[in-house]
Amino acid sequence: MEHFSLKRSTAADRGTSNLSSKVYVRSTKSGKVQKIVRELYLRQDIPCSSTLCRACLEIAPKDYTDKAAPFVLSDTPAGSKNFPNGQYLVPDTNAFLTGMDLFEVETAFHDVIVLQTVLEEVKNRSLPLYHRLIALTKNEGKRFYVFFNEFRQETYVVREAKETINDRNDRAVRQAVQWYNHHITAAIKARSKTQTRVPSVVMITDDRDNLRKAKAESIPAITLSDFVAGLENADELLDMISAAQDQREVRSKKAQVFYPEHYTVSKMMTGVKAGTMHQGIFNVSPYNYLEGSVHVPSFDKSLLVLGRENGNRAVSGDVVVVEVLPQDQWKAPSTKIIEEETLNKNDNPEFEDGENISSERERKALQEEVKRAHGQSSEGRPQPTARVVGIIKRNWRQYVGHIDRDSVRSTSKSSRTQQMVFLVPMDKRVPKIRIRTRQAGELLGQRVLATIDSWERDSRYPIGHFVRSLGELESKGAETEALLLEWDVQYKPFPKTVLDCLPAEGHDWTVPASIDDPGWQGRRDLRDLIVCSIDPPGCVDIDDALHARKLPNGNFEVGVHIADVSHFVKPNNAMDKEASQRGTTVYLVDKRIDMLPMLLGTDLCSLKPYVERFAFSVLWEITVDADIVSSQFTKSVIRSREAFSYEQAQMRIDDDSQQDDLTNGMRTLLMLSKKLKQKRYDAGALNLASPEVKVQTESETSDPVDVQTKKLLDTNSLVEEFMLLANISVAAKNYEAFPQTALLRRHAAPPKTNFEELSNQLKVKKGLELRSDSSKAVADSLDKCTDPDEPFFNTLVRIMATRCMMSAEYFCAGTQAYPEFRHYGLASEIYTHFTSPIRRYADLEAHRQLAAAIDYEALDASLQSKSKLEGVCKNINVRHRNAQMAGRASIEYYVGQALKGKDMNEDGFVMKIFSNGFVVFVPRFGIESLIRLRDLATPEPEAEFDAENYTLKIKGDVQRNVELFEKVTVRITDEVEESTGKRKVKLTLV
Amino acid sequence: MAPSQSAHVNLSPAELSFLRSTLSQTPPIRLDHTKGPKDFRSMVAEYDVLPSTNGSARIALEDGTEALVGVKAEVEKSQLRPGAGAGAGAEEGKMLSVATGEVEMRDGEEDGSRGKGRNSWIDMSVEIPGFRDDDALPVFLASMLTESLLASGELKDRLYINSRFHWKLGIDILLLSPPLSYPLALLSMTTHLALLTAHLPALKSEKDEDPLFDDDWDAAVPLYPKSSGNSTSPADKPPVIILAMAVGPNIIFDPCKEELAVADAILAIACANSTSSSTGARIVSIRTIDPPSHLTPPAVPNAMNSATGGTAPASTADALTQRELLATSGVWTPPRGGMKRSLISQITKMVVGKGGVAEEVISALQAIEVG
User: Fold this and answer.
1) Who among A8, A270, A271 is closest to B51 (CB)?
2) What is d(CA A470, CA A452) in angstroms, rounded to the nearest whole number?
3) ipTM over 0.85
4) Cβ–Cβ contacts within 10 Å for residue B158, how many?
5) Which parts of chain B have pLDDT scores under 50?
6) CA A435, CA A443: separation in Å to the nearest integer?
7) Residue A371 lies in domain
8) Prediction pTM value
9) pLDDT in tens, A27-58
10) Which of A25, A32, A271 lies nearest to residue B74, judging by beta carbons?
11) According to the UniProt record, where is the region Disordered (chain A) (predicted)?
12) Judgement on whether residues A571 and A646 belong to the same structural domain of the protein
């Protein structure tokens, strides 16, 4: 009987055909399990991409412009000791996983073939490493080529029965290497009969089994460390190999285990879904490195995680799963300052025999905390405590730090012996990292960049490897780079692809002369308006300009004109992508890391005086009482008449002899701004002080000379008020046009619990009340918190109140209900950022949305997708915070440098009291510093800590009572710490 | 049991009578004279024809009928059964406490799945060209096939993963050709082959956690595991439905449409391999099927036919008496009455005994898989 079979081709004839299939099981997050069958078509024209090979060039597939992709691998690849004729490298997955830093080094590792098998395995094992690998392949100078061996017929490998997936992949790699070797040899032969220099294609792998099989099949193969040993500057490079793999082999002898095991993923997921376990981000308290907290949605307050054992190898920033401990083990948050440096100074990085994970000192420190647990106030009452049972996602990054001097055995610079040293990260919340290095002597006294590789159960500290050195400790270059790295600020110069997006005319670009030019379409000609700008002194990127004039009906026309950045930065081009990643301009004391190239920021977009510029204008009709009658939004062209600094503007306004239109316009603005401000305060806006200081530097060397607090002038608030008004108006318009996708900014009301501690402190110490039911209540009670004897007290309370606030964040309108749009601090129903597109990406997006709302141009697809916008918001929130922290860190550094060698007495206020010390805030310099009991006298004086009345009675020689909010005189000096070589500001009580 | 309309044969009474007499002879001469009473029609079978299913099979018989079966398995959340298992209530209470957070395990997990399966976990759909989903034939075929699968209870127990999750098995049966004969046996054999070769992804998670499965399809476990070597308990196999019919003193297996038309009685016997010994089989379910012969009109003998010179009966009573006398004369009359008990026991012995029909069919189907 004639039979027609439904079955696909069997394995038998797969070898010859170019059709293959693979079957696997996919489990989705929702629990569905699917059998997936993928068919594979194999081809024979995937090129080897070596410039030596002519055959591949002829058959290489061409794109629609009839051009083949250019070949990447050099025809004269570098050689090394083991392969003098030159080599193409084919790294195996483990080589990439352990040595990614090595591959990124500029001076070595070129002409690398990345096999598709290896790329996919790296992707499955570590997504961050995968992204770094992809970036390497795009880097033209490194000449990394991705070869799709799974699609090429000659290198396709079918899994045999009983062969594991790993073995199959190893075999695929070996097959590819072998094919490449034959192919290159054939290519050379075809090229020239006499050529003898045949580069070898070398497999790099640390898998012993793979190496053995490769040797058996006479495929050139070598381990990563052996290969690196054959290169120049091998010592530095060897250090960069991840320590994780070596450690495992050494450790296997030792049975000692310090930490409990982590639960399996399925167990944790089940627990989280069932509600018996909770997932959240692990945060470490900067004052107490043994205390961590995890915020989970089911509890109001964060769960505490106390002690190393309960922390179970979680590092600050990781996503962890915790399990709540039984109620009798709940503890109170600590009132003691515990620093890792001081407590574990004498730890030996080499071995840890006979040590329990909690040293005696640590345990005693924690024990004293339990006593507090029975106190009456909320301070002492135990809170839900938990322990970490597993890590969902590690958020390790590269950490800046320095090598702990005490941990270095031989400090000689020439010593090349490998030793284990401790790296102390700059971020106090990250534990010490154990690093194996050969350059210990050289690295002492330097700022160093390192990364964590792993933290196993049998190791008290995480282990990592060294990446590179940033320079001498405390040198400006090293410190600046260090803080930029710590806060993940992208500071490398703009790549060529970004600069290609700039207008071709460069600095010669001008507003088109003729009104019929397409550049004028949709723009109003506002060049006759008397516009001026008021900015900090020395500002070159002028975002905003204002004007005001009287209307015939007695009202005023006020206009805020913002630089039209969206005209120059179109969505989704390289410059836009780079700006989106950077998120914001970062301002350091002496440097500015721009979000957009300088050509735009300081010239073409900047609303410089005396030239015509494109702008996006918001025009209002406002009555004398500062009520808004109407508002309009339009793209425009303006010509700013003057660019003032705050002081200059103030002087001009105050100078009665000046009566021209410009000055009168400024006076109008000032009058209106005062009324607007009053309205805002009546509505409950908060006026919170931040201790902003300005560092005065010598002009030549930019060495700090003096530090002063910034003074607030009337003109500061003039600009501020109109910027706020513009932001609010634009927010309303954008929300009306795009109710689901408008990019807005909100400030959530702080939960009552945040204010508990502060209001308790005020009640107990000063008998003052801090009401927190609404922002108006907060504003009013803050106004009443004054001390007639001490004018600064009010500012101090405001500073402390600021710390109780939630942070404001960008969000996408569709993700929250309308009441949640509120900006608590500004007491506004709806708010966005619109007025600084040169230095903030959020503003640029708001510009694009407003342009679409007024039908100037169509909205790009990326701004219509809620999910894409949510991603953008998440990124800019992080970047905004990091920029703030980086700016503060830069000021701290400069203040520290300004105080170098000085010895002066200044007033300070006590801000926080611990059982073994207190924090003093010095308003002149805006610094706050810890004074420990042991710094006051030796031996460390006894002290009685009263948590409920916030006092510390110090006995011994000092005999002094220290109270919260007390004004004290402190002596400011700087000292160099012995063990670390770091310079610290030291305060002592006078 | 409702009659199958498709098996409505267009044979004249004379042909029906002829068939019956040949089939009642000793030895019976079947329509296909090369076949004996216990011979089955030859078939071509293949499995794993549908790559995206967990198991699939296709069988084509020599008369052109063809069936295709696909088996798909999906993870589903189990409904909590009140009072299921000893101490389940107490265990659930413990799970709510925050103290230990440990998930309670059941004791004796190995045979803990016994009795935990539920009938709703198997979902069958039968599609026959020319029939709607709610027509009688597809509905009854589906229920007969499902019943035989669920009767022994082992299959649904195998679908149990843990107390919160189970596999939902979806069996889709397609008859690819118009139903020329009663398709029950064909569909059943195809389903048997599909289930025999079906695989479930290997479970990686433990006990009561959310199930996590091995990515590797080659690690998938068969739905019906092969015996692990000790022949004390031979491997479990899915059941197979065998059609048997009785005509006069003879019993005929695997009847074709015409043979069914003259049957006195039809039995559909679902058998699975025996658990106690490696030979023989056990009966899982038996159903009688109303023979289509009951619907055929009786022939009119020449004596009663006025067209051929007879006299038509005057009244119904007259007609009935005359028919009684014709019962053995060779003129076709639809058979009356049910099945004798001895007949049923005879059939079952032939099916279930050592070397019986069931064993032949099951081993033949298994040989396809192994081969």
Assistant:
1) A8
2) 18
3) no
4) 19
5) 1-4, 6-7, 84-111, 230-232, 371
6) 12
7) 265-352+364-391
8) 0.65
9) 777 777 888 888 888 888 888 888 888 888 88
10) A32
11) 340-360, 365-384
12) yes
